[in-house]
Amino acid sequence: MDFTFSEEQQAAVEAAQAVFGPVAPDGVPSPSLTSGAVAEDFDRALWAKAADADLLSLLIGPEHGGAGLDAIALCLVLRESAKVLARIPLLEHSAAATVVQACGGAELRQEILPGAARGELVLTVASAGRTGHDPAELAVTARKETDADPRTWVLDGVQTAVPWAFGADRILVPAHTGEGEAVLAVLPGPFSDVPGLTLAEQLSTTGERQAELRLDGVRVEARHVIEDPTAWSRLHDLLATGTCALALGLGEGVLKMTSDYAGKREQFGHPIATFQAVAVQAADRYIDLRAMEATLWQAAWRISSGASGPLPVSGDVAVAKTWASDGVRRVVQTAQHLHGGFGADTDYPLHRYHAWAKHLELSLGPAAAHEEALGDLLAAHPLG
Predict the structure, then answer these.
(1) Pick from 288, 264, 285, 286: nearest CA to 274
(2) Residues with Cβ within 8 Å of residue 259, at least 6 apart in sequence
(3) Which residues contact 325 (CB under 8 A, 6 or more apart)?
(4) Is the pLDDT score of 2 beyond 80?
């Protein structure tokens, strides 16, 4: 079996390294140094560079100006972006465009995908639900306005912690019809002009602006509603797997920072990296990262290839989330411990990584919940 990445995937990594390599993590706005939001918008200059390098169109088909690559390529690029805490909605934008392409109507694809590929349209997704713990598709109801206009859907409900919403041009909102079916509504901006739609500012642990999305009788044209029953599950799995890729990249960046520090910091006339207690802790975190990596590529491969397995793809995603959620926390905690007081210095970038890691951990959810979901899948699909 060949586990190497394809030439196209490796080219995507090289392009990502060229774009994200110059980013200085200690220049990323720090939530420890700002009382409110660290910035009004995401990094538009970096977004433009990513667009110029075709990183925003990786999964979009050539007919719409994209490269037509797969989830593995996206995860490779996300890993590079997380190493430097890149402040752009690359995951949400790419995942949303992928689902529009796979499940949206021809008119919707033509309206969104060419602009998304060029970075002119910014896409994001409301995926946290009402509380961040309940299924996102159950937080909003969707019904056809049959009495007035059968070509219109009406949305009611609340979605919390919508990332990058204040800088986005489209928000994909999952909703349920009350008949056990999930749909995806594509809300067009400017959002202040949409009757019944309000965005209230929320702050993540990174200090970035998020939004509580309230929908009170919001009307959406039928062409902006994706009714494919697989659309939300596709989007949910890709977002979760991409978040695991961000956790891996962040963890790798933190472990390298810790290794460099431990190799230079001396105690009793020797680098602390030579002390057994330090080396063992670093080795444990290296094992965490390798497990995060293996489970990430398994999930990304299932999504990309559509290959069948003993469990649905959600099982592989649950395993990846279990390792990523616990692993990224352990990596940053060990890094903070091995850095000592220096790690808390706001002139040093580690505290920024700690805040971003906590955000990713909360986004992924507790490992125990994913283990429970995996147990349910195993019960429903006994391994022969």
Answers:
(1) 264
(2) 273, 282
(3) 247, 361, 364, 365, 366, 367, 370
(4) no
User: For tokens 């919390």, what's the residue?
Assistant: 160
Beta bridge partners of 125: 172
pLDDT at 383: 76
Give the pLDDT score at 1: 53
DSSP category for residue 368: H
Whole-model pTM: value is 0.95
Residue 104 carries which DSSP code?
S
- What pLDDT is recorded for position 180? 79
**If 0-12 CB within 10 Å is exposed, 13-18 middle and 19+ buried, where does residue 178 land?**
exposed
Average of pLDDT values for 249-260? Answer: 94
Q: Nearest-5° angle of CA 15, CA 20, CA 26? A: 170
What is the distance between the alpha carbons of residues 82 and 338, in angstroms, rounded to a whole number? 21
- For residues 322-333, one letter each, b for 16 or more C-beta atoms within 10 angstroms of the residue's C-beta and e for the rest, the string is bbbbbbbbbbbe
